[in-house]
Automatic annotation (TrEMBL):
This is Arachidonate 15-lipoxygenase B. Residues 1-103 form the Lipoxygenase domain. One of its GO terms (molecular function) is metal ion binding. Keywords: Dioxygenase, Membrane, Metal-binding, Oxidoreductase, Transmembrane, Transmembrane helix. The gene is ALOX15B. The chain crosses the membrane at residues 17-37. GO terms for biological process: lipid oxidation. SUPFAM superfamilies: Lipoxigenase. PROSITE patterns: LIPOXYGENASE_3. It comes from the Eukaryota. Gene3D superfamilies: Lipoxygenase-1, Domain 5. InterPro entries: LipOase (IPR000907), LipOase_C (IPR013819), LipOase_C_sf (IPR036226).
Length: 103
């Protein structure tokens, strides 16, 4: 908003209303940023998936396997719960969570 909100309930003129709205380029920039941030990345890696073998020792690899098992169990529980819901909530399903920040 480019103008403060009205202080009274009096009707605004069209000119006053339009003057209060943000500039068109500001609105376009905000919409473009929101569009980019809301789209899923093409190379999305779900939580717990490590395509590169950074860990070669047995202890970290064992922990990764255990972590993945727990994530699969959580994912199954969420999908089972969502199957019974009128409006499912898939957003915290580990399969839908990015492995790392992708902004």
């Amino acid at each position: 908003m480019r103008e403060p909100p009205p202080r009274s309930k009096a009707a605004l003129s069209e000119q006053e209303f339009l003057a209060a709205l943000p500039a068109m380029n500001t609105t376009a920039t905000v919409l473009a940023v929101l569009w980019v941030l809301r789209n899923e990345p093409m190379d999305m890696r779900p939580l717990g998936h490590y395509p590169d073998r950074h860990f070669t020792e047995s202890a970290p690899r064992r922990l990764i396997r255990r972590f993945r098992r727990r994530l699969r169990r959580i994912s199954r529980r969420i999908r089972a719960r969502n199957a019974a819901l009128e409006r499912p909530y898939p957003y915290l399903d580990p399969e839908n969570i990015e492995n790392s920040v992708a902004i």
